[in-house]
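CATEGORY: protein folding

GOAL: derive structure tokens
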Amino acid sequence: MLQPRSTSPPQVQASPGSVGKPTIIERPLSEPPDVLEGERKTVTALFADIKGSTELMEGLDPEEARAIIDPALSLMIEAVHRYEGYVVQSTGDGIFALFGAPVAHEDHPQRALHAALATRDELHSLGEDLRNRGRPAVEVRIGINTGEVVMRTVHTGGHTEYAPVGQVINLAARMQSAARAGS
């Protein structure tokens, strides 16, 4: 049986794309962005977000909104890391994560599913806690898809991104958008 890796809760990073375990490579800003050759890999993409976050945030002070969103993001990130996934980026009210790259695991689809179930369960508990304290509850939507992509490294001037290209990613994102809350 797959056992989760023990980790301490991650801190939510301030900038998009900086969440997770990215490799930061400093390059002079005068150098043009470049793309390194890609590598074909089979990966599992996971998208998770808070359903109805726009409506949830209406009428809330930004600090109040942050007090709801940040714990949810931390739980999502922690679940991905627990099963040795890679958080490609924060999407504001959610995450985009990969299993099977940059570190290959033969059981990456199962790891993604375990992370999704942990995310769902932990965000359900967070939602109940928020509701009990008279705050708006959060619900999560998750989309997962497995298939071939081309992984490439993109140097953007200030940092390096390791990101996939392929229909697999688009389908996982659409599945997440169409998912019911709590699924």
Observations:
- The helical segments are 53-57, 62-82, 108-132, 167-178.
